[in-house]
Amino acid sequence: MAPLRHRTPGARSRLRTTAVAAAAAAVGTFFCSAGNWLSPFSPEVTRPQASSSRREAAALLGGGLFSAAQFGFPAAVRGFTPDDLGMGSMAAPDMSAEVREKSTKELEESVYMISRVQEATVQQERLVVTGKFKDVQRNSIRRAVNMMIDNYKLNDQFIVAAAYIPTKDVLRASTIGNEAIEVLETAKEYFGKDLKVSALSEDQKKFMVDAMAAEREKIEAFLKFLPEEVVAAARGRVEAENALNMKEYALEGQVINPVTLPWKSKKA
After folding, report:
1. More confident residue, 230 or 195
2. Which of 78, 86, 100, 159 could be cross-linked to 55 through a Cys-Cys bond (beta carbons 3.0 to 4.6 Å apart)?
3. Domain of life of the organism in this record (predicted)?
């Protein structure tokens, strides 16, 4: 074994300095590497230019190309929001006040037509139950249902009215509108042949009665999303026109038995 050499105080000092410098260099290298590895997760990371849209960011995130932090999104897991498609604060303002006021007449007209369909469901239900009708068209189930869908352009009315519903409720309201259309379409399919009211079986009558009740409920649920004053005005128009018709029929000596409007009865 080689003999231990005696080191002078100056030599020992230089060794300590060299060791400290080496340790500092090692620590610096570690933090530099760690910094490069952690940089994508750092809040100080450089974000995209302001011109980059949230929609583009969402698309990139959807493809798994970048982390949420790189676009300034919260690191925590979150649900899908309209902001991801540019439908939040950056677009699609709430459909309220000014927008609705500009076309109140358009909305009222759509609600009027929808209300007429709601009224027609009561007429058709009574017709199926009693078997009494005054014209050939109403004796045909498919034709009667087609009149509700086509004559009143029901699907178009739902679309127009939905434009006046607050953004947060549009999806739910539109779903209900689609379900209302499906109820009538299902009724058409159920009666594959052009059956007459007078030839319906008890099961067929029950199906039709249930379908008409379901249609009224769907329409009522949809109208709940619209301004009450507009709905009231449209329904008031229906009531006024019906009252005039009653007077005209009375003058002509004809007896009519109008149905109770669904919104006037306890059950919609």
Report:
1. 230
2. 86
3. Eukaryota
Q: How far apart are CA 64 and CA 57, in angstroms?
A: 11
Name the pTM for this structure.
0.59
Q: Average pLDDT of 237-245? A: 92
pLDDT digits (tens, 9 = 90+) for 134-143: 554 455 788 8
- The HSE-up count of residue 141 (CA atoms within 13 Å, CB side) is 29
Rounded distance, CA 154 to CA 46, Å? 52
For residues 240 and 115, state if they share a domain.
Answer: yes
Phi-psi region of 179 (alpha: psi -120 to 50; beta: other; left: phi over 0): alpha
Give me the torsion for CA of 250, 137, 181, 217, rounded to 10°.
40
Report how far residue 161's alpha carbon sits from residue 165's, in angstroms, rounded to the nearest whole number: 7
CA distance 154 to 113: 7
Q: What is the pLDDT of residues 131-165, one digit of tens each?
A: 765 554 455 788 889 999 999 999 999 999 999 99
Whether residues 67 and 193 fall in one domain: no
Instruction: Give domain status of residue 196, yes or no.
Output: yes
Q: Which residues contact 205 (CB under 8 A, 6 or more apart)?
A: 128, 129
The domain that contains 108 carries what CATH number? Answer: 1.20.120
Cα distances (angstroms) measured from residue 102 to each of 38, 174, 209: 53, 22, 39
Per-residue confidence (pLDDT) for residue 160, from 0 to 100: 95
Residue 145 lies in a domain: yes
pLDDT digits (tens, 9 = 90+) for 57-84: 333 333 333 333 443 444 444 443 444 4
Domain assignment present for 227: yes
Q: Which domain holds residue 245?
A: 103-261
The structural domain count of the chain equals 2
Question: Same structural domain for residues 147 and 248?
Answer: yes
